[in-house]
Amino acid sequence: MPLYECVVIGRSEITQQQVDTLADGIVAQIEAEGAQVRKREYWGLRSLAYRIKKNRKGHYVLLGIEIEPAALTEMERQLRLNEDVLRFMTIRVDEIDEAPSAVLARKSDDRGFRGPKPAGRFDSGRRRYDDREEFRAREEYRGPRDDDEDRGRGQEEV
After folding, report:
1. What is the pTM (predicted TM-score) of this model?
2. Where would I find the H helices in the chain?
3. What is the pLDDT of residue 107?
4. Is residue 143 packed enough to be buried (19+ CB in 10 Å), middle (13-18) or exposed (0-12)?
5. What is the structure's pLDDT at 133?
């Protein structure tokens, strides 16, 4: 049987238990068709890139399934009819990776250290534009600039 990954986005107003119930219903329907769910991950409540049906956030669930195309069409039809489902996307894959997905792997990373702090309260800790070596080197190569002569020429032409 072909392998697919399906990501389902549920409404933000429903609870995590309701999302689990929704996913259980999808899994029950898939298994009733004689297919198999190999992977199931709850990614959590995440921000959407843009508003979908007046929602700014959604509950994400990933399903790795082994299913026939006819049963997949019926599953997608049921997802379209469900009011708690904002969006879903099903993609055919060569194999279903049993390891945690990139979303869950990134979630579990240690987020304690975020880099060095700025120098002070009002100083951002960044160097000024003129202080960088590359700009100092350009100024040395170009030689001293005489701004007064440039201004003088402009006034004479007027």
Report:
1. 0.65
2. 16-32, 69-81, 102-107, 133-142, 147-157
3. 72
4. exposed
5. 61
